[in-house]
Amino acid sequence: MKTTAISMLLILNLVQMLRADYDPLASDNSAFTQADFTIEDAKRSREIPIRVYLPSDKSPAPVILFSHGLGGNREGSAFLGKHWASRGYVAVFLQHPGSDDSVWKNAPVAERMAALKNAAGINEFLMRVQDVPVVLDQLEVWNKDNSNEFKSRFDLEHVGMSGHSFGAVTTQAVSGQVNPLGRGFTDDRISAAVVMSPSGPARGNNKQAFGSVKVPWLLLTGTKDNNPVNGAEPKTRLVVFPELPSGSKYQLVLDKAEHSAFTERALPGDTGRRNPNHHRAILALTTAFWDSYLRSDGEARLWLDSDAVKSVLEKEDVWQKK
After folding, report:
1. Cβ-based burial of 115 (10 A; exposed 0-12, middle 13-18, buried ≥19)
2. β-pair partners for 91
3. How many angstroms from the chain centroid is the CA of residue 74?
4. In terms of CB atoms within 10 Å, which end of the chain has fewer, N or C?
5. How far apart are alpha carbons 265 and 286 in whole angstroms?
6. How far is Cα 85 from Cα 63, in angstroms, rounded to an integer?
7. How far apart are CA 259 and CA 197, in angstroms?
């Protein structure tokens, strides 16, 4: 019994040491470069702009894709791409023509909301979910091309998918959400997903849509996460997590965070001041999640599954896992 007690004490001490050493916010902001490219999808006569944040370390690195919200572009949410790249990930930010900033930026102010709502339909959703595998296919080509600057730079056995708002809808669809019509969009190359401002399915029920998600998911939202374009309210963001199967599923609800908390600029409908700690929490938790499930980092997983998470959260933030 005494030996067992000593062994348990040693294990507990080791766990505490690992938690103390792991810091998901540590980064070297000079340890990456960024560049813009355009991927040609000949089958759809479509061009997909991307921005690549590339770690300076030339070893093959896990890849994280990011899908912007309605009316955004590949330049948005750069705080995520820069931090993830500084942590050793290749971050590829997609731009989806037809639901990007071209929808509104040249329209008269009085017509912009109508233009955005028109671009939020099924046609643009279908374009988006096809953009993701096209980009992954191109990364595979570049990775094998001896003449390409990206030769052997991508670890495509470990791919993360992420997105905000319409990008969250895109992320859900390609990483495990079930379509009620029977046609799925899941790409089996995706190992884990981060969903910012999640949404329930447009058709069908939540259990059918999310009850069989196989890969780890991290959901992030806020208590003021409204979207004036589609009428989504904070309570509608919370219907996804309860229906996910247990095991490697997480949710963070940031107190007083609005829809723009996951971006770097105010959005229509904002009512409050931005809280700098929201970005801090988002960076910490997404990084620990990627480290846990794209790198199988034991220290990150211990941090993510322990009370250490609370060190980056505020009192009224709600953290859940199952």
Report:
1. middle
2. 53, 64
3. 14
4. N
5. 20
6. 9
7. 7
Q: What is the pLDDT of residues 32-90, one digit of tens each?
A: 999 999 999 999 999 999 999 999 999 999 999 999 999 999 999 999 999 999 999 99
Q: Helix or strand or coil: residue 21?
A: helix
Terminal C-alpha separation, the chain = 32
Do 60 and 153 touch, CB atoms closer than 8 A?
Answer: yes
Check whether domain 24-321 has CATH 3.40.50.300, yes or no: no
DSSP 78-138: HHHHHHHHHTT-EEEEE--TTSBGGGTTTS-GGGHHHHHHHTTSHHHHHHHHHHHHHHHHH
Question: What SS3 state is found at 196?
Answer: strand
DSSP-based three-state secondary structure for 257: strand
Give me the pLDDT at residue 223, please: 97
CA of residue 274 relative to chain centroid, distance: 20
105 is written with which tokens? 């930026």
Ramachandran region, residue 154 (left: φ > 0; alpha: ψ -120 to 50; beta: rest): beta
- Reported as a single tens digit per residue, the pLDDT across 182-204 is 668 999 999 999 999 999 998 88
CA-to-CA distance for 77 and 263, rounded, in angstroms?
Answer: 5
Task: Give the pLDDT band of residue 10 (cuts 50, 70, 90).
Answer: very low
**How many CB atoms lie under 10 A from the CB of residue 263?**
22
- Closest Cα partner for 308 from 319, 296, 316, 297? 319
Asked if residue 174 has pLDDT above 60, the reply is yes
154 is written with which tokens? 């991508």
